[in-house]
Structure formats: C-alpha cells, structure tokens
Specification:
By secondary structure, this protein is of the alpha+beta class. It has one domain. It is 34% helix and 19% strand. It contains seven helices and seven strands; from the N terminus they run H-H-E-E-E-H-E-E-H-H-E-E-H-H. It has a five-stranded antiparallel sheet. The chain has a two-stranded parallel sheet with strand order 6-7. A hairpin with a 3-residue loop joins strand 1 and strand 2. It is globular.
C-alpha cells in the first residue's frame, strides 16, 4: 500500500507540473487587448477590426482602406523556447505579403534574460522589416540585405543565441504564413532553393572569381 501511495503522489506531482507548464504557455500566448495593441500600430496605419479570436486584426491606412494585418506569433505559432514558453513577436504584414514591422513583445529565453540582455534580440527581430514572404529567408549570415537576383535573404544571427533566434524565426514565418494562407490569396513563400544535380557547367578560374564563387586572398599565420 505504501508503494502504491508513493506512485500516486509521484503521478500527481507530474500532472501538476505539466499543468503549470501548460498554464505558463497559454498565459504567455494570450493576445493583446485592443487598447494595448493600438499603441503598437504606428502611422500611417491604424488598427482595424479583429478577424480571428487568436489575435489577428486588420490594419488600415489613413483613408480607411485595408492595408494589411497585425498579429502575434504566440497565439498563432506557440513554438516553445528553451524556457518552455513561446517567443511572442508582433508582426505587421502588408497586403502584398511584405513585413511592415516586427516587434518583440515577450520572451523568456535564458540567454537573453540573464546573459546577453534583450537588445540583440530586438535587433534580430527588426531585420524582418521590409522583407517579403516570397523571399527565401534564412538565419546565420553577416548580412541581411535581400539578394535581388535570387530573393534569398540571410539574416544576421546572434552569437551564443543561435537556437533561440531560430525558434523566433520559425515562429514568425509560421504565424505569417498562416495569416497569408487564409487572408492573402496568391501570396506564398517560394520553395527552398535546392541544387540541381543535372546542371553541369564548365567554369574556369577567372569566371569563378567574376561570379564571386572563388577569391584570391593571402592569409598570414596570425590570421590562420
């Protein structure tokens, strides 16, 4: 009987722990109230009407015409971070599928809470402004400017926080694509680029240098 009682107590504690974690996630992912959300919509846009109980709202321009949507990633794509809570980003998306704005609302990632501070995380999220869902966006390169020829955008990551910023990236794209599929007909992300095994092209050294594939550089022992 004593063993049975211990098993029941352990099961109860485990159930309470799971319930507490779920409660934390749900609380973190709660949509902003209208009054609070209005303070995050900057001119020349205004908050319109709520069209989804998960916190998706329309935005209008100063004439009252529809201009896009504003939503949080937490309620739409609650991907848990290292703390078990989702990273909540407020995204403003234009009717053409372009990111008008992206603002970090809340997070509890240990590397930013007790290590680097939150400023690098805000800077990372700000890189989405001006990008498009039709771009192929990846994380982890020193430059974030779009490549006009390929539509491939590489966002600057955050040293020592690679996993956290990738979780934020996946949350932003998942939430934005969810809104786009429902409300932005004809706007979709491009498929990921893949090498073509059948492509065969002879390139000499000057051509490789001209295309930026190869470069000549002298490296000293100190730099190696």
């Amino acid at each position: 009987m004593a063993a049975d009682g211990g098993w029941r107590r352990s099961l109860t504690r485990a159930a309470l722990a799971v319930a507490a974690m779920l409660s934390a996630v749900l609380a973190q992912a709660a949509p902003l109230a209208q009054a609070a959300l209005e303070t995050h919509v900057a001119p020349p846009y205004r908050l319109g009407a709520q069209i989804d109980p998960r916190g998706v709202w329309t935005i209008t321009d100063l004439t009252g015409a529809d201009a896009g949507y504003v939503f949080q990633t937490g309620p739409l794509a609650p991907i848990p971070g290292f703390s078990g809570q989702p990273i909540d980003v407020l995204v403003t998306l234009g009717l053409d599928g372009r990111f008008i704005d992206a603002e970090l609302l809340s997070q509890n990632e240990p590397v930013f809470v007790s290590g680097l501070g939150v400023a690098p995380f805000h800077a990372f999220v700000a890189q989405y402004r001006g990008l498009s869902l039709s771009d192929t966006i990846t994380v982890g390169a020193p430059y974030g400017a779009p490549d006009a020829a390929s539509g491939h955008v590489r966002l600057d990551g955050v040293t020592k926080a690679t996993a956290s910023v990738r979780i934020a990236h996946e949350s932003i794209l998942a939430a934005a694509l969810s809104v786009a599929r429902t409300h932005l007909r004809g706007v979709a992300a491009q498929p990921a680029a893949r090498p073509d095994p059948a492509h065969d092209e002879a390139l000499d050294w000057p051509t490789l240098i001209a295309q930026g594939v190869a470069a000549r550089r002298r490296v000293s022992n100190a730099e190696a």
